[in-house]
Design goal:
The complex is a heterodimer of chains A (269) and B (264). Chain A is mainly alpha-helical and 269 residues long. Chain A is 76% helix and 0% strand. Chain A has 14 helices and no strands. Classes of the chains: A mainly alpha (269), B mainly alpha (264).
């Protein structure tokens, strides 16, 4: 690994990490502040919600989670946190190597006495560090929420831990898939449409399969691989789906390596 | 005119990709809907609820056993798709010139900056309109097997108008961001941020009474499928609010872009 590339990549992303992590944690804490009111009126709210059309609730993932419990509410919030982190990870993945070609710095970088595998490894590690920093802040936000708003209500801390720990695996999936897609296409002009498409696409698919009770769609979308409703209900991860997710990530990363080593990089004329 | 045509051509690929996405969404949706259509079990549930309650809670608008109910749900996704597409088109059409280092070229052409924005905005607008029309046509084709009556078609027409208004709001926001942000990379990120925040607000605003005020801040709530179904029309107050947002954003975009320093 090249420390110089790692440091440069990490510093280039530090502002973005700051904005993403602070807004994700702030969003978590802000919305969680309505939870005590929710829990106090548990009976009434459950009664009202029972009258909502179930399809509408399912479209937002509200049907399987009992939102008057701490974990149920956190699980509901986690879907949005996942959406946040998916977009961020997608951004980093799609932009990781394509940015050099867009900004015409690829030939500068690749003529340095560092092998391509070293370049890719350093860049990947820097992106992973950036993502993990965001996760750390989200974790801290979670603990703040629990300390401030759980108000002594009972919850299973191992389930909470499981939900928190599922986040990094979820993020790496989007990083890997984003990276491999960016290497498969000829040129990534702009990163945002790609990452938005990937993140919102899989989010909508997950919401869809929740609404229509479908099983097959579950296999494609990572939002179902790490479905908070499932984790809360069973107190465990959905092992086959998580393994599938990990396998896809590993294949994607391996493919990235091969593709990047052999990639034809357009030179600046 | 040349800029307008050039932009239309450049955005055609993106429009086609979005059309394919919406086509897939509608196809998957209708395929799954077939399992629910006319399911007597779910219909019985509805009969048990008092009529007044059905009206108050929009149960009919989201009743998955009817085509109308199915489209009430689908509208959430149509709105989201339209918003993302429009915001991306809006920011990209302005900021790509700086990204691709063509901004000096396009601005030394013998046209004023205002003319450039007008041509680009119109091209994006045509794209948005085309996207709504594509959604509309796909929808009509997809539901033919369920022989919908005329009330469905008028509801669909209303939904498509609402989708177009959501697109207009986000297109105007996107244009403003593209014009106002000094760095082209930031405009896309800012658009993403706004979409995320407004979408999340639309979901949580219904959760509790004292969060109800949030509905004025999120365009997704201006056009609610339940309200559309109940009133049979788009709420005039929200329509006015949307118009104000669009006009302010577009005016600000022109004003800022005319005096801004370019990122080269």
């Amino acid at each position: 690994m090249s420390a110089t590339i790692y440091r440069h990549e990490f510093l280039a992303r530090i502002n973005s990490v700051l904005v993403w992590s602070v807004s994700a944690a702030a969003f978590l804490i802000l919305v969680f502040s309505i939870y005590p009111g929710f829990a106090d009126e548990a009976a009434m709210i459950n009664e009202i919600w029972a009258k909502f059309p179930p399809e509408l609730l399912a479209a937002f993932g509200m049907n399987k989670l009992n939102m008057t419990t701490v974990l149920g509410f956190y699980g509901f919030m986690l879907i949005f946190i996942q959406l946040f982190l998916a977009i961020q990870a997608g951004n980093y993945g799609f932009g990781l190597v394509s940015i050099e070609e867009n900004e015409l710095t690829a030939d500068f970088l690749l003529t340095k006495p560092v092998s391509r595998s070293q370049v890719l490894l350093s860049k990947l590690l820097a992106a992973l560090t950036s993502m993990f920093l965001t996760t750390l802040v989200v974790w801290a936000g979670t603990l703040v929420c629990m300390a401030l708003y759980a108000g002594g209500r009972e919850y299973d801390s191992s389930t909470l831990l499981l939900m928190m720990l599922s986040l990094p695996i979820f993020q790496i999936f989007f990083l890997g898939v984003g990276l491999v897609v960016s290497l498969l296409v000829k040129r990534v002009r702009s990163v945002t449409p790609y990452s938005l498409g990937l993140a919102f696409g899989s989010y909508v698919l997950a919401a869809f399969s929740g609404m229509l009770g479908d099983v097959k769609l579950e296999l494609i979308t990572p939002f179902k691989h790490f479905d908070p409703a499932y984790i809360v209900e069973h107190g465990a991860l959905n092992t086959p789906l998580v393994l599938l997710n990990l396998a896809v990530t590993l294949v994607a990363l391996a493919a990235c390596y091969i593709l990047y080593i052999r990639r034809d990089i357009p030179a600046v004329s | 005119m040349n800029i307008f045509l050039r932009e239309l051509k450049a955005n055609l690929k993106s429009l086609i990709i979005w059309s394919v996405i919406i086509f897939l969404l509608i196809t998957i949706g209708t395929a799954k809907f077939s399992a629910f259509a006319g399911d007597p079990e779910s219909l019985k549930l509805l009969d048990a609820v008092p009529e007044a309650m059905v009206e108050a809670l929009n149960l009919r608008a989201f009743n998955l056993t009817t085509v109308i109910g199915f489209y009430g749900i689908m509208f959430i996704y149509f709105g989201l798709m339209g918003a993302i597409a429009a915001a991306m088109w809006g920011t990209d059409i302005i900021s790509k010139e700086e990204r691709d280092r063509t901004v000096e070229f396009s601005l030394v052409l013998p046209v004023s900056r205002s003319r450039v924005i007008t041509a680009k905005a119109l091209a994006a607008l045509v794209n948005c309109a085309a996207f709504v029309l594509v959604t509309w046509v796909f929808s009509i084709i997809a539901v033919q097997t369920y022989t919908p009556d005329s009330s469905f078609y008028s509801f669909l027409a209303l939904e498509m108008q609402a989708m177009f208004f959501i697109e207009l709001i986000f297109l105007a926001l996107g244009l403003l961001l593209g014009c106002a942000m000094q760095q082209y990379k930031l405009s896309g990120s800012a658009a993403v941020g706004i979409i995320l925040v407004t979408y999340v607000m639309s979901v949580i605003s219904g959760m509790q009474k004292n969060l109800d005020f949030l509905k004025y801040f999120t365009p997704f709530k201006y056009f609610d499928a339940g309200a559309l179904f109940r009133d049979g029309a788009i709420d005039g107050a929200y329509l006015l609010l949307s118009a104000v947002i669009v006009v302010v954003c577009v005016a600000a975009a022109y004003w800022i872009y005319n005096k801004r320093d370019l990122y080269i």
